[in-house]
Amino acid sequence: MAYETLLVETHGAVTLIRLNRPQALNALNSQVQKDLVAAFAAYDADSTQRCLVLTGSEKAFAAGADIKEMQPLSFADMYGQNFFAGYEQVTATRKPWIAAVAGFALGGGCELAMMADYIIAADTAKFGQPEVKLGVLPGMGGSQRLTRAVGKAKAMQMCLTGRFMDAAEAESAGLVAQVVPAAGLLDEALKQAQAIADMAPLAAIANKEAVNAAFETTLSTGVHFERRLFNALCSTADKVEGMAAFSEKRKGVWRGA
Ligand code: HXC
């Protein structure tokens, strides 16, 4: 399927989505939101696809929500239309996905990257929540996800001053899983996505659910949730296959069942 603001291709079991509004540094207007919702839903529903990489351009992953589109909108417009609600559907994606970030990931761009299961950054990446400079604040989860990722001190400093965080600091602060040279970003992201795609698909979803539960619940409830998922996976054909494959020193052949 073709999208107005995205380029989508498949590499075997890996879906690659590129944000494609180069004239606006991939600013996230409502068409991008609509396209992302549709593309992520299509990925989640396609049983041949097991991991996804979302990326932008060399210069910008995304420079934020589209300021020119937001400029004339009032409280009633935003609230009435529930303007950014589509991104809740993106975060509801059950299967794994990685954000591969080069250049600017600012405002909504940083927030979109933080919706990913994890971020791989090029050494050129710059993260920021500069909404304060526009008289607003993050509105797609930035104040919450950034704080959970890097802690209060850095999140508060970034939100209050609008300063950018470079890739090295983002890695040491825990915002990104790994930094790689810009020229190798996409290859590395696709390689990791392929490795994830090679895992048992139900186990991939369960691992994602369990890690995400750590952000939503107490330790004891989270451990309980994890144990129930573990026990449940013991009833799958892929658990039987995975453990047999280990004993027989071969690769598992997954059925997703
Ligand atoms: C609309 C944008 C844009 C944005 C860049 N552009 N960012 N258009 N919305 N967020 C456009 C510019 O207007 C310009 O178009 C073109 O992209 C190239 O940008 P330049 O500014 O000329 O590039 P450069 O000088 O290299 O500066 C790059 C930049 C700067 C530092 C990233 O563009 C910038 O500060 N952008 C805004 C960053 C920001 O404030 N993001 C947060 C947005 S608020 P023209 O037509 O002039 O050539 C947000 C809220 C989210 O995200 C929460 C919502 C609920």
Characterise this structure:
The chain is α/β, with parallel strands linked by helices and 257 residues long. It has two domains: 6-197, 2-enoyl-CoA Hydratase, Chain A, domain 1; 200-248, Lyase 2-enoyl-coa Hydratase, Chain  A, domain 2 (Orthogonal Bundle), CATH 1.10.12.10. The chain has twelve helices and ten strands. A six-stranded mixed sheet has the order 1-2-3-5-7-10, sandwiched between helices. A four-stranded mixed sheet has the order 4-6-8-9. Strand 1 and strand 2 (14-19) form a beta hairpin. Helix 6 (142-150) crosses helix 7 (152-161) and helix 10 packs antiparallel against helix 11 (219-233). The radius of gyration is 19 Å and the shape is globular. The mean pLDDT is 98. Pfam families: ECH_1. InterPro entries: ClpP/crotonase-like_dom_sf, Enoyl-CoA_hyd/isom_CS, Enoyl-CoA_hydra/iso, Enoyl-CoA_hydra_C. Could possibly oxidize fatty acids using specific components.
What descriptors fit this protein?
single chain; 257 residues; 2-enoyl-CoA Hydratase, Chain A, domain 1; Lyase 2-enoyl-coa Hydratase, Chain  A, domain 2; 2 domains; six-stranded mixed β-sheet; four-stranded mixed β-sheet; 12 helices; 10 strands; 46% helix; globular; binds hexanoyl-coenzyme A; lipid metabolism; ClpP/crotonase-like_dom_sf
